[in-house]
Amino acid sequence: MRPLIFLLWLAGTCMFSASAVAQAQPEITPNRDDIIRLLGQIPDVAPIREELQELGYEGENLDLAVAQAELVYRDPVLAGFIADQVIVAFLEPERVGEAGGLLWPLVERGLGHLPTRELRFYYRVERSLIGGLPRQACGRAIRNRLPPERFAELITRAAARLNTSGLREYYRIQAKAARLGVERMPVQFTRERAVATEDNINTRLRASIEASDNPAPLLRALDDLDNASNRQACTIGKLFLDTVLTMQGREGRDALIYMSLP
Q1: What is the distance of C-alpha 190 from the center of its chain?
Q2: Rounded alpha-carbon distances, angstroms, from residue 42 to 24, 38, 56, 66
Q3: Which of 80, 79, 65, 50 is nearest to 8 (CA)?
Q4: Lower CB density within 10 Å: C or N end of the chain?
Q5: CA distance from start to end of the chain
Q6: Measured between alpha carbons, how far is 217 from 152 in angstroms, rounded to an integer?
Q7: In angstroms, rounded to a whole number, what is the distance separating the alpha carbons of residues 60 and 55?
Q8: Residues in the chain with pLDDT < 50?
Q9: From CA 34, how far away is CA 97, in angstroms rounded?
Q10: Mind listing the pLDDT tens digit for each residue in 110-128?
Q11: CB-CB contact of 121 with 173 (8 Å)
Q12: Distance CA 33, CA 136 (A)
């Protein structure tokens, strides 16, 4: 089961900007410094605040979300990475579609390098965001049947309702992970370590289900998640995150990193 990730509204915007800039003047090789300057100007003309307001952000949470979106374009490390992707898109346009957005791959690569405390906080927020989704959407997301754009919209609306201190810390950790993703390769698990971690999580998850009031349907759903109901899939997804978040020590860190593996 793959982790459920906060697909920021701005991730698609970044990918569009990269391909658009690369194709704007095909007869001229893009200059990295010029691209970085251009990226820094995007927040001045893009309706970032208005679009976030439409997604439910207001007050200090709105200010935090706007700053987080602008960070992608103005942070030297992240903007430099995007500029490099623009140049790659110019030189090898067939690779533009492979990135799958710019922000999330960086966060994904960097999460495993975070201290355990920050990684645990990050996934506690993820658990809260999943808990804020409508049950049908939650179940479809767990079964990978919710279009990414719809999931991004719903999860971003859920984030708008977080308390301000939690949202601020979540954004800080996310930005830190993105920067680490630029600077480092993903954490590597040996096959044996990955299998042991997955088995450990699954054993604990089954134990949690067996301790519930009506375990039999959920256990059947766990073994055939594609055909589970949305209610069952959503419950299993939440229990999965709850299970990982209760694990401690080396086992707990391995479980958190396993969820973050690309």
Answers
A1: 23
A2: 15, 7, 22, 12
A3: 65
A4: C
A5: 13
A6: 30
A7: 14
A8: 1-26, 97-100
A9: 23
A10: 999 999 999 999 999 999 9
A11: yes
A12: 46
Q: Report how far residue 66's alpha carbon sits from residue 250's, in angstroms, rounded to the nearest whole number.
A: 36
pLDDT of residue 4: 31
pTM of the model: 0.84
- What per-residue confidence (pLDDT) applies to 149? 86
Q: What is the 3-state secondary structure (H, E, C) of 67-110?
A: HHHHHHHHCHHHHHHHHHHHHHHHHCHHHHHHCCCCHHHHHHHH
- Contact present, 253 and 261 (Cβ < 8 Å): no
Phi, psi of 36 (to 5 degrees): -60, -40
Cα angle: 258, vertex 259, 262; to 5 degrees: 80
Distance of CA 64 to the CA centre of its chain: 17
Q: What six digits make up the tokens of 96?
A: 């533009």
Task: Count CB atoms within 10 A of the CB of residue 118.
Answer: 19
Q: At which residue do the structure tokens 């007869």 appear?
A: 27
Measured distance CA(114)–CA(30) in Å, rounded: 34
